[in-house]
Amino acid sequence: MLTIGVLALQGAIKEHLDRLQSLPQVKGILVKTTMELEDVDGLILPGGESTAMGKLLREFDLLEPLTAKIKAGLPVWGTCAGMILLAKSISGQPDNHLGVMNICVQRNGYGSQLDSFSVNTVLPDIANTPIPLVFIRAPYVESVGQDVKILAKIDDKIVAVEQDNMLATAFHPELTSDLTFHKYFADKVRKAQTA
Fold this sequence. Notes:
This protein is an alpha/beta fold. It has helices at 13-21, 34-38, 50-59, 63-71, 81-86, 180-194, and strands spanning 2-7, 26-31, 42-45, 76-79, 87-90, 101-106, 117-123, 127-135, 140-144, 149-154, 157-163, 166-169.
């Protein structure tokens, strides 16, 4: 049984938890403390408001322990705001949050809440059939550095990337009933266990 945590400070927490509970041999738990962080085999950083989440990570004294765990190999998946938390650099901002993934992101790259949209597309590295991708005030990746694999582009904008134990998506798989990305992440966590 895998234990996959959802960072439960702010954002789309329940939706990720619901998707995890739908997977066989996976237990989803909420993570708000360093003790809870110790209990997980993998962690999802949900969508939400990245500035608020970064502030809460600092207030809950989770920023440094989480950064250390990710650098030590903890599988982590950031969706939307979670992608921004992982990024080494954020376009137009002098500072970052966790700063562990070799990407530069553009916050609100797709404009306001009104510019939210959904597409169905095939991502060869993830699934052979079209899967729904939901974008809500989404970021996108402006540039990638060493060891970063691009998993998806929409209109020439990079929207999903992977680097070692890290996965980041600009879209929200938890807001659809499709479990493809949650299964993909669970498999990544499983592989890390056996590595």
